[in-house]
Amino acid sequence: WCSILNAQMGLSVADDTLVSNARIALDSSRALIGIDVTSGEVMITGGNISNSRLAASYGGGDVPVGIQIGASKVTVSDTDISGFYNSVGSLGSSILVTGAFSNIAVSGGLLDTAWVGIDLGSGGESTITGVSVSNFQTGIMVDGASTMVSDCMLTASSTIGEVGILVAGTETLINGCAILSSRTIYAGETPIGISLNGENAKVTGCVI
């Protein structure tokens, strides 16, 4: 257990590290990244990562991220993440996989307020299970192959919400998810519950 307060970056971890029940509250004027995973098989479990920096205070290219993953075989379970949104550049993710990294497992936890809730990058063979994602433009992005998204609750932002789950990868299974939106005013955008742009996708038991 650890508590990290008023930092620009909370933790940088690598090489078979376990982060358990960490409380990270980033600085309200400098906040950027909660946890940066740079290599190795890392497990993050429990805890809370929060960002109170105003969404309009970022530069146009700043990308605030709750957990940034630059490695394969990373597990995130039951971790709550909130406030990683740059309204100036329309950027920010609660969880961001930065490239073609595979075997990412995300389960449980509450992810609130980001441009993208979970961006799995272009790797594959990953799973997202039982996660609650709210106040987003896009809830979950899947670009890699052979990924499963199951039993998730997604509630889009009432002001910027547009897409619940965006699939560009192949062999994606989406099962038992609920996707909700209360947004009623759009400026040319097309609201979509699940956007399927990859081959051999399967959707079962979802409510949209």
Mean pLDDT comes to 96
N- to C-terminal separation? 38 Å
C-alpha geometry: globular
Number of strands: 22
Helix/strand/pairing category: mainly beta
Radius of gyration, in Å, reads 16 Å
Q: Which percent range fits the helix content?
A: under 10%
The percentage of residues in β strands lies in over 45%
Main sheet: strands, sense, barrel: 14 strands, parallel
Write down the secondary-structure element order: EEEEEEEEEEEEEEEEEEEEEE
* Uncertain runs: none
Number of helices: 0
Task: Describe the protein in words.
The chain is mainly β and 208 residues long. It has strands at 2-7, 9-13, 18-20, 22-26, 33-37, 43-45, 48-51, 65-69, 74-77, 80-84, 93-97, 104-107, 110-119, 127-129, 132-142, 148-150, 153-155, 163-167, 173-175, 178-180, 192-196, 202-204. Strands 1, 2, 4, 5, 7, 8, 10, 11, 13, 15, 17, 18, 20 and 21 form a 14-stranded parallel beta sheet that branches. It has an eight-stranded parallel beta sheet with strand order 3-6-9-12-14-16-19-22, with no helix packed on it. The radius of gyration is 16 Å and the shape is globular. It starts with a strand and ends with a strand.
Give a quick summary of the entry.
With 208 residues, the protein is mostly beta strands. It is built from no helices and 22 strands.
Distinctive features:
single chain, 208 residues, mainly beta, 14-stranded parallel beta sheet, 8-stranded parallel beta sheet, globular
Layout of helices and strands:
Elements: E1 2-7, E2 9-13, E3 18-20, E4 22-26, E5 33-37, E6 43-45, E7 48-51, E8 65-69, E9 74-77, E10 80-84, E11 93-97, E12 104-107, E13 110-119, E14 127-129, E15 132-142, E16 148-150, E17 153-155, E18 163-167, E19 173-175, E20 178-180, E21 192-196, E22 202-204
Parallel strand pairs: 1-4, 2-5, 3-6, 4-7, 5-8, 6-9, 7-10, 8-11, 9-12, 10-13, 11-13, 12-14, 13-15, 14-16, 15-17, 15-18, 16-19, 17-20, 18-21, 19-22
